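Limitations
The structure tokens in this dataset are predictions for the assembled complex, not deposited experimental models. Users should treat interface geometry with appropriate caution, especially where small molecules or nucleic acid strands are included. An illustrative entry is reproduced here so readers can see what is and is not provided.
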Amino acid sequence: MTADDIDATSPEAVFSRGRDVLARQPFSVLIGAELAALTPGQCELHVPITDQIRQQHGFVHGGVVSYAADNALTYAGGTALGRPVITSEFKINYVRPAVGSRLIARARAEYVGRTQAVCRCEVFVRDDAGGEKLCALAQGTIALLPQRSSKR
Amino acid sequence: MTADDIDATSPEAVFSRGRDVLARQPFSVLIGAELAALTPGQCELHVPITDQIRQQHGFVHGGVVSYAADNALTYAGGTALGRPVITSEFKINYVRPAVGSRLIARARAEYVGRTQAVCRCEVFVRDDAGGEKLCALAQGTIALLPQRSSKR
Amino acid sequence: MTADDIDATSPEAVFSRGRDVLARQPFSVLIGAELAALTPGQCELHVPITDQIRQQHGFVHGGVVSYAADNALTYAGGTALGRPVITSEFKINYVRPAVGSRLIARARAEYVGRTQAVCRCEVFVRDDAGGEKLCALAQGTIALLPQRSSKR
Amino acid sequence: MTADDIDATSPEAVFSRGRDVLARQPFSVLIGAELAALTPGQCELHVPITDQIRQQHGFVHGGVVSYAADNALTYAGGTALGRPVITSEFKINYVRPAVGSRLIARARAEYVGRTQAVCRCEVFVRDDAGGEKLCALAQGTIALLPQRSSKR
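Predicted assembly:
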């Protein structure tokens, strides 16, 4: 929901900074999320599909798909704005059950203003053969963290 | 993302059936979700707040808040439609960082048609004193599972 | 999309102020929208159903239903925040074709923060007998107008 | 909200069929909407900016921007599914006030299933110099019209 301080300047710094943030998110660590790529305004987040993230039919739980979209959107918006942000809202359309070996969320900032970024994300599921299938599409608003709360 | 077979008739049966479904969702078990109440068209889902579901600032991760909303919406819609369903889409607005002892998602079906239900959900965070604060609002579409996939 | 200066203090002033704003919206005048009620955080907007707002099957065009929701959400949020606002985003679920004599959008602010309000709206269609049927549900974010643009 | 019978086969037929549908939408005619391009799964809808579609600050009313997105999404989904459809839901993020000479909504089907299509749309405003600026982004669900209602 927040990806603060991803305000590093060099590409390497942005990526390593993003990984530090993910490593400090106990929930992301719990489900094994990995930051595959991060540049200002763009993010690719992976979640290896293990039994623990499934629902009763063996598909990845929708909540995990929405987590992946939420987090990827926040990274894309946070790096685009270059300052501490918070995810204000997002919507997601599920189009296919997530069955495969890896969940891949790709997000980008489509509009970057002074105080917010509107980002979009597609979540794919990759099978063992490396093929990818779209399983969800999301769109949301990433906003600068109100000053009051950004003190840390 | 799906809450199938919650088609039991008696209130007790609906609730116990709902608990069975939750118990068969490895991800829900992983984060300790509890079904507090379930009647046709209404659901209350709890998630005790533990360190493992937090993000880097100690708040509950937005992905967990969206999971709670997603799952509660699905239960509300599934029990309203009385047949296997799937969450087609939803949107969520985060309004306050989730800090407290328990996440509480309350959802209800606002419209129930022949093939879909439109549901709304509010996610609250309860503190140790029992006080509740709204932290997110969601709205989404729960649809009957396409026949093809509903065979089990 | 914006409902500025609805910062009057007395109930009467809020309502008459709101009507002034509507009267200054050429598009709202074009389709005959009427402000039926307005109090801080709550709004009821009507649109008499005439042939000019229909689509090819005689139903009210979805774009008019979304206009009614958008405008009602903005009034609810603008009066709740008491300062110039802008509609940042909203989502709408259409649940029934709008057939009747009058479109009625009722919106309220569900959460009011320092810089934004999250509002919900239901759009009903009233028939000649006075009966009402729900035809759409919406949820959106109304935000304070950035200072820069609020100069007029 | 519905764009039925856009099931023509040749590109020319799809486009002329789409124009017929628009011409039969009194509301679209009222605000002067024009179908600039239509191919299976893709649509470009224009709305010349005239005083009658503005709000109180001279910007195009958000309701007209949402109408353009709604209609473009429906055309994209309807031509992708090739059968009578209905817009189930959509969300829109406004990113910039619409000021210019022409509103341009471009939509495409991002996912096409057996019973629904998930589409995205960007709404731009074109100025007299021909430059375009993004003013809104939308995403929504276009579904096949329930058989019951598709008889005409």
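Some entries come with short summary sentences. For this one: Helices of chain D lie at 11-23, 26-30, 62-81, 147-150.
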